[in-house]
Every structure is written in C-alpha cells, then in structure tokens.
Design brief:
six-stranded mixed β-sheet, about 375 residues, disordered N terminus, L-amino peptidase D-ALA esterase/amidase, 14 strands, alpha+beta, four-stranded mixed β-sheet, globular
C-alpha cells in the first residue's frame, strides 16, 4: 500500500484513537449494533472484576512459555460470600469447564471463573480451592467447600504446554490483581498463546446497555478465543477470510493451524435472571460466535457460562429468600445484547492480538489492521 493510499484511507475514517498501543475494533471504524457501556467490557456489569497473570519466557532448546491465567470474579471481593445464579451451555464439547455439573444441579455459581490452557486445568482448580480456604471463613455448613469453575483452550502451538508452567502463585496473582474498569485484551493472561481464524488472538470483551420497560440493565461478555478456520472469518458481514491476502510464507505457517481449537465465553448481567433463564442466555452466545464465522468444528470446545449479579444469594443459614426475576416475555433484549457483545468481544480479541513467535520457533501473525480496513472500506462497512 502506498503512502498516498494510506493517507487517504486514514482521512476517510473517523478513527479517534487509531495508533494507540491496544486498539479495539471500534477504533478502526468497525460498526456494531447496540450501545456499549463505559468500558465496553464485562466489568461494566457493576461488581464484576477481572484479573490476569501473563507468563512469557524463552527457555533452552527452543522451548517457550506463552500462556497464563485469567479470572472473573462475579462480585469482586464479595465473590466467596455471596453466590450468583448461573447457567452453562456446551455448543461442542471437545473441551473442559469444571464445576458445571453443580452449576446445572444447583443453579448457582459459587466462586470465581478461571481460564487457562488445557493442561493447566488441574493446578488452577487446586489453586482456587487453596485461595478459598485462605479467605478465612467457611461456608454456611461450616466447611471450606468448593467445586471451582475452570475452563480451558489449547495453546500448545505457541506454548510449551507440557512444561506445566502455570503455578499456584500465578492463580493467586490473577485473583489478587482482579479489578473493575478497563480490561486488557489480546496476548494477555490465559489468552497469551491463543489463536483464532489463523490469526494471533486471545482475550476480548464487550458490553451492551439495554432498556427493558424503562429499567436500564447491562450485559457484558468476555471471551478466550482460540478457534476457527481462516476461510470462515466474517467481520461486518463480509467473508474477510476469503478476501484477506498475505505472503506465501505466512500462508504455509497458517496451514498448520487447521481450525480446531476452542472458545470459552463468559456472559455477565445485572438483569434479574434465574438459572434456567441464564442457560438460555448462554445458548445465545452461539449466535454471536456464528456471526464471526465459527461452525463449531468437531475438534473445538465451545463452552459458555452466564451469570446474574441481581439477586444476592447469602451464604447464611436462612431457610428462604425473596428473589426478583425478569419475566420471560421481556428477556429478548438480553438475548440480543448477548449476541451483539459476543460478536464484538471476539473481534476485539482479533484486533488486539499481536504477532508472536513462541514454542519451537513457531510464529503466528496478527491480522493486519490496515489490510482489514481497506477491505471493509471498499465494501462500505466502516
């Protein structure tokens, strides 16, 4: 692309923050439906906090660490004292999310959600229990009882996954650093070594503000994206994967990324929803994923979980508790917000990804922003 064409391209776009270190899809002029919250992140749902621990290290014998841990605390520091209603859904089950048997049975999410790589689920699971015990207070039954929710995607292409580099202290660091506000995206936390649609990818997030009969609610989504073939990628309704061109060397590299992989999607809301409704919400993440081009391949673990912070479930021994619930006839805006925020969160993960060389010298390139902009602009999608 010539400097003249590049200048015209940038002049033709209203890119307020183009050139920032961590650009997002909207910074490139990509248009999405719906109204985002203040941070356009899962943390726009009041009380939700997110923490990361990113592990990047080069080792002898051409090995490399490119992995990490991400945690979502539904109620921040109060997460261990007050549960939330939750529901989960598996679009394709070639993956793992622990604790979901109890989420399904009880309807409750009773602690943080942690994300990591496939072969670190066990250590993260144990670390969450240790952290629970270290908080000091037992549950209402008098025990430090916990069935943590830990989900994974496979980063073994860029990461020395069988080196077992995630440790208990890394999980503790992620938990202790969890905060509200802006959420990092791309090559951070458990998204550090992840790829999607043949590009460097990782963590992404988005949110929507909705109005239901005069009441304002927020829906937030966080994704760990590590799925999909290049040819199926769609942005702005366009088959970007078919239109995008790169040099032959990069094409050969990306042939080894056959499209199998996984995506974990976490949906949060402050709308008063019960567990059976949240399972319905978790299912709707499928539609946002489909907008970007997933076909839920046989080798993909596409697993989603949703929770609501509206009803504060006390850990006391009270026999009964009053609850609020959104009527099913009014739930459609939540469904739509989930679809919209899921789509944008995935594209944010793609845009935030940075070129990476990792384990055994393998490399994955990020999607080139200017090339993407040129395609979208040519077809009036900006």
């Amino acid at each position: 692309m010539t400097k003249f064409k590049l200048t015209l391209l940038l002049i033709g776009l209203s890119i307020v923050s183009y050139g920032q270190e961590n650009e997002r899809a909207r910074d490139l002029g990509i248009v999405f439906s719906g109204m985002p919250g203040q941070f356009n992140a899962i943390t726009d749902v009041k009380g939700v906090t997110v923490g990361y621990k990113t592990l990047t290290k080069d080792l002898p014998n051409n090995k490399a660490v490119r992995t990490g841990v991400t945690v979502i605390l539904p109620r921040g520091r109060e997460t261990m004292d007050h549960s939330v209603f939750g529901g989960w859904f598996s679009l394709n089950g070639n993956g793992e999310m622990t604790g979901t048997t109890w989420v399904e049975e009880s309807g409750f999410l009773e602690g943080p959600i942690a994300l990591t790589n496939t072969h670190s689920v066990g250590v993260v699971h144990d670390a969450l229990i240790k952290w629970r015990v270290a908080q000091g207070s037992p549950d209402a039954s008098g025990f430090w009882w916990s069935l943590p929710v830990v989900a994974e995607t496979y980063d073994g292409y860029l990461n020395d996954i069988n080196g077992f580099h995630v440790k208990t202290e890394d999980v503790f660091d992620a938990l202790e650093s969890a905060k509200a506000g802006e959420v990092k995206e791309g090559n951070v936390g458990s998204g550090n070594g992840m790829t999607c649609h043949g590009f460097k990818c990782g963590m992404g997030t988005s949110s929507r503000i909705i109005d239901i009969d005069g009441e304002k609610y927020t829906v937030g989504v966080l994704v760990q994206a590590n799925y999909g073939e290049r040819k199926n990628l769609r942005i702005g309704g366009l088959p970007i994967g078919e239109m995008y061109h790169e040099d032959k060397t990069a094409s050969l590299i990306n042939q080894s990324l056959n499209g199998d992989g996984s995506i974990i999607i976490v949906v949060a809301t402050d709308a008063p929803l019960l567990s059976h409704q949240l399972k319905r919400v978790a299912r709707r993440a499928t539609l946002g994923l489909g907008r970007v081009g997933s076909i839920a391949r046989n080798g993909s673990g596409d697993i989603f979980i949703a929770f609501s912070t509206a009803n504060k479930i006390s850990s006391s021994k009270k026999v009964s508790q009053n609850l609020s619930m959104l009527q099913n006839d009014h739930i459609n805006p939540v469904f739509q917000a989930t679809v919209e925020a899921t789509e944008e969160a995935i594209i944010n993960a793609l845009i935030a990804g940075k070129d990476m060389t990792g384990h055994m010298g393998r490399s994955v390139k990020a999607i080139e922003h200017l090339a993407l902009i040129e395609i979208l602009k040519k077809h009036n999608r900006l």
